[in-house]
Amino acid sequence: xxxxxxxxxxxxxxxxxxxxxxxxxxxGGGGGGAADGGAVLSxxxxxxxxxxxxxxxxxxxxxxxxxxxxxxxxxYDPKTGEAQDMVAEKIDTKDxxxxxxxxxxxxxxxxxxxxxxxxxxxAWNYGASLKNNQKNAYFFGYIEGYDQVHPEKGEQTADTLSxxxxxxxxTFTVKLTQKFSxxxxxxxxxxxxxxxRAFFDDHSAWLSKPVGNGPYTVQSYTKGSExxxxxxxxxxxxxPAQNGGVTLKVYTDNNTAYTDLMAGNLDLVDDVPAAQxxxxxxxxxxxxxxxxxGIIQTLAFPFYDKNWNKPGLDKVRKGxxxxxxxxxxxxxxFQKTRTPATDWTSPVLGEDGGYKAGLCGEWCEYDAxxxxxxxxxxxxxxxxxxxxxxxxxxxxxxxxVDAVCNSINxxxxxxxxxxxxxxxTFADFRNQASQQKLxxxxxxxxxxxxxxxxNFLQPLYYTNASSNDGKWSSKKFDDLVDKANxxxxxxxAVETFQxxxxxxxxxxxxxxxxxxxxxxxxxxxxxxxxxxxxxxPVYNEIKVG
Length: 545
Hints:
With 545 residues, the protein is of the alpha+beta class. It has helices spanning 3-6, 60-69, 117-128, 146-149, 197-201, 203-208, 254-263, 280-284, 313-322, 326-332, 350-353, 368-377, 396-412, 426-434, 453-461, 475-486, 490-507, and strands at residues 17-18, 40-45, 74-76, 83-85, 88-93, 98-103, 164-168, 171-175, 216-222, 226-231, 245-250, 268-269, 288-300, 338-340, 386-391, 418-423, 442-443, 446-447, 510-522, 526-527, 529-530, 543-544. Strand 7 and strand 8 form a beta hairpin. Helix 12 crosses helix 13, helix 15 runs antiparallel to helix 16 and helix 16 (475-486) packs antiparallel against helix 17. The longest helix is centred in the last third of the chain and has 18 residues, at 490-507. Residues 1-34 have low confidence and may be disordered.
């Protein structure tokens, strides 16, 4: 079935594809020549946080690789975001709780293994198992038996999910613990990718050189330097690579990446640094892309720290939110490539999909006097100072964190009320955040995994959810999310999710800052460059020549 059948309430923005006229050039990371699918392009990248396992990859950099070397049951259309069948031939259900999945014939992994129903069932069981400690285990939480393979406390009492059954090579069934009408549309997410037997037979060898069923294969990876991916010529899917491969070059500062692009040493930068936004159009002309994306930037809080989880601290969090001049920051720092956030989702969902402009209300409106009043009523800033932690390796975060702190300091008439707290690399930052080692607010940008309002709320704010790094918890919120997931009427589902979002607002579980556009700049060697609604380059469609 088409994704829209199950999620009529999931709307997405169209990613605009701007193409530049290409010309001959030098090897951009492994090859050169005419635009015949044989030339290699180079692109900026950052080392991923975790080993490149589908169920252990929950951040953007690792996700880029997953999207190149894997194809799942569904794939989100690069232009519309619609969940469309890829490896799935059909996904049937009569009650939104029991699903029968039939996969297409002819799919293989790049090592020659057939992609079968077992490839998915084994992968999902691995991802869900407590002993494997996978970051995305939570995504399997609605499948029957999850509480046995991944209990909240104690040891697991089963190795496999009782809700998964292999019927034959091309069919398996899924039984959920409750109705989840949009479950099929989540199956394009990385965590649900299939795995070959080689993954289990020699796990360490697979991790050193992952094998998937997507249009690229991994040739080599040197941490801190680069990953080389090559076009898989025998790829059986409908979206083969239009280039010979991609070399992902590691940068600890995207200003350096931009400099390399301008010098002809790099082909693609997919996150133009804030410091270059004022001159990027003059530098690149029509080789620059700025388009809406399903990304929101927020400030999260360490609710596991008793100093930030006292009664009345919601007023302090609301006061800090009111001390941030979003309009001024997005205009001066980001040259209007960001839009002040007024809810906790993204405009790309559209109103029917769950975006509700103004849901944050007065708490997202700048007012210095109200900010001071709220913070005083809430007992003051814990420790007397806000230290905003962020990763320093992109170069862009320092600019906006400093601007946010300046805004807070000015509003509170205290030049020491807020300071930035940089962490060297993205991986180090994510490790500290996911291990609950941070002792103050921290940046929590969210790029949607799939275009549903549920994805902007549940992974971030549901109790013990996969990306709930701050460990905020609310039974009222959890109950509303469960109710929304079980709702088969699209409009009622959206309404219930928005009620859950109002709980996030009332407790200011995180401060929404701004919605982010995706940006990219590229060399004159490339054409047909586009970003999908997730702000990731559609690498397989890029042409080199």
